[in-house]
């Protein structure tokens, strides 16, 4: 073997060693990356599951606990259909909607949405689902992440209940601020105090009409002396209240209209047909009593 051939062979050995070192480094990096993924997968507080066409192929401990299964083997034996109720809250079949969610994930690269799943003891629970298409070996799969929303939904429901309670209390306060008072034979008066919105006036229609019927009232007086200001919606509801009273036989009277309220009535372009407007409650009561 010539000196040149020896040199070429030595160079080839060096190149092979370098290539082998590079491969070892790449394998080490891949192993490290795989280990990092495995740690994240196994120890995440969110449930992670891998699905392929055959069903569940892997899951982490959080998924086992979330589903209340005994171990991973039990999870892997499950058919995906048993993990959801027949229908989702929007009424759609879970089997039908899940196909659409998978398709969206594959088209967009990932898809996030809310879903209702079912534990092995039958309890339904809400989750935020993230679907991500991945490759496992030579095949395609979906990495599914479930973030349990049970506590969040409970807090949300509690907050909504509190809001509804506050709204009910406010409605009751409005009702108490606007009592229907009998101020004479066949004469009812509703004093409007402070500030009031159109919705509160709308809710007042029923109680006022009931009071007119119960008392066989011939007149309804709306005293606005205590109303500081009004908007267009309030003005329209005020006129509708008086019109409704007129339909069941009670003549409408309005007293104590302030400048701000008068301006709102004009700007709302409402008409007080058949309604007598006087400066004060005393004037209205005097007219009704014949004084």
Main β-sheet: number of strands, strand sense, barrel status? 5 strands, antiparallel
Structural class: alpha/beta
Main-sheet strand order equals 2-1-5-4-3
Instruction: Give the amount of beta strand, in percent.
Output: 15-25%
CATH fold field value of the largest domain: Transcription Regulator spoIIAA
Helix content: 40-55%
Describe this structure in words.
The chain has 291 residues and is an alpha/beta fold. It has three domains: 1-43; 45-148, Beta-Lactamase (2-Layer Sandwich); 179-289, STAS domain (Transcription Regulator spoIIAA). Helix content is 51%, strand content 25%. The chain has helices at 3-43, 61-67, 72-77, 94-108, 150-177, 198-215, 232-247, 259-267, 281-289; strands at 47-52, 55-59, 111-118, 124-136, 139-148, 181-184, 187-194, 219-227, 251-255, 275-278. The strands form two sheets. Strands 2-1-5-4-3 form a five-stranded antiparallel β-sheet. A hairpin with a 2-residue loop joins strand 1 and strand 2.
């Amino acid at each position: 073997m010539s000196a040149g051939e020896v040199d070429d062979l030595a160079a080839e050995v060096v190149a092979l060693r370098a290539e082998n070192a590079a491969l070892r480094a790449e394998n080490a990096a891949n192993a490290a990356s795989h280990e990092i993924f495995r740690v994240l997968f196994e120890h995440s507080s969110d449930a992670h599951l891998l699905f392929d066409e055959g069903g569940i192929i892997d899951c982490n401990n959080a998924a086992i606990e979330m589903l209340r299964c005994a171990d991973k083997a039990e999870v892997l034996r499950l058919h995906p259909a048993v993990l959801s109720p027949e229908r989702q809250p929007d009424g759609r079949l879970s089997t039908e909607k899940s196909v659409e969610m998978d398709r969206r994930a594959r088209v967009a690269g990932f898809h996030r949405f809310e879903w209702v799943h079912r534990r092995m003891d039958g309890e339904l629970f809400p989750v935020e689902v993230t679907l991500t298409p991945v490759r496992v070996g030579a095949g395609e799969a979906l990495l599914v992440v479930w973030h349990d929303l049970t506590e969040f939904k409970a807090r949300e429901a509690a907050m909504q209940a509190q809001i509804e309670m506050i709204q009910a209390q406010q409605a009751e306060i409005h009702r108490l601020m606007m009592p229907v008072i009998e101020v004479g034979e066949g004469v009812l008066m509703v004093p409007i105090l402070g500030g009031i919105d159109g919705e509160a006036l709308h809710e007042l229609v029923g109680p006022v009409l009931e009071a007119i019927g119960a008392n066989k009232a011939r007149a309804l007086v709306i005293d606005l002396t205590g109303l500081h200001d009004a908007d267009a919606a309030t003005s329209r509801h005020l006129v509708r209240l008086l019109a409704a009273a007129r339909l069941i036989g009670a003549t409408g009277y309005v007293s104590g209209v302030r400048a701000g309220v008068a301006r709102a009535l004009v700007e709302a372009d409402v008409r007080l047909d058949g309604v007598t407007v006087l400066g004060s409650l005393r004037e209205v009561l005097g007219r009704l009593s014949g004084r």
